Amino acid sequence: MKNKRIILLAVSALLAASCQNQGQQQTPPPPELPVIEVATRDITTNSEYPTQLQGIISSDIRAKVSGYILNVLVEEGSAVKKGETLFELETESLSGEASAARAQVNAAQIEVEKLRPLVEKNIVSENQLQTAKARLETAKSNLNSISASVGYATIKSPVDGYIGSINYRDGALINPADRLPLTRVVKTDKVFAYFSVNEKDYLNMLMKFNQNSKGESSLISSFPEVVLILPNGQVYDKKGKITSISSQVNPETGTLRFRATFENANLILKDGLTGKIRIPNYIQDAVLVPRVSTFSRQGKEFVFLFNASDSTVTEKAVETRRADPYLVIGSGLQKGEKIVGSGVNKVKNNDKINPVSSTMDSIVNSFDTVFK
User: Fold this and answer.
1) Cis link prior to 231 (omega < 30° from 0)?
2) Which of 29, 125, 193, 233 is deepest in the core (most CB within 10 A)?
């Protein structure tokens, strides 16, 4: 029995020693990670907003009278002048009505001429003459109305411009209440780019761009030139200017409507084209960190502060704004503080690391090289 007890104690000691050795072997060394010093630089950030373009003139062409289209005299995309005929409607029925109305005017005129001498001779009363004159004026008004309708059957362009889509062709019955216009005439030597800005961005712009304005200087005049990004990702070669800002916030979307104007002498930009408006924002002495030095959790951005006293890291929440390949720090970090430059997925809060001194540029360049 005594021997068995000695054997059990020996086995237990061996097992404990083995577990201790395994625990020591399983503890890895601290990861070797680059540490950088937070710096400040002058930088330009960009805000982008979806937009849709519209010609400086965009006139819907609609019929003022009902009728069948006899002739479409223009083609889509063709240039037209103000007063040029675009469509002709059937006027046969209107012409018949005009003839009847003209006959009524003639008859009423004859009646007036017949009664006038009779009134002078006191054969008929003045009231009869006035009644006849009233009937004459009514007949003339009816004729004028029908004549105008005949004129409306010839549909002309109200402005110089270019023809858009033609929604109705020869033989189509149209009327003033149709949902679609006959076509649209647009002028696009300049174009408007409409886009919406949320309340927060608007107030930030107000403070940034309008902070030095005096007197009647407005936010509009203090805006920098803006850039148009085309649907294919290319940058339009001419910069635009903010020319209008809505006077009220849309209560449903919480946004304000902006309008930028672009020159378009070569007519590359078309009415209805979509894209993005890019508004630059120059920041002096901005606190920057590489994007790869941060990580996200529950919609917030974090960095790992490096503690030189014990080589541990502490996670720190920061407010950021994107400025590829950097992030501009709004709050949470100051110039001169040290953070983990990359590999933030390899550590957690309060872990120890083996720091390797690095710079922001080397971190950014190494990241770009990997993903080229």
Assistant:
1) no
2) 193
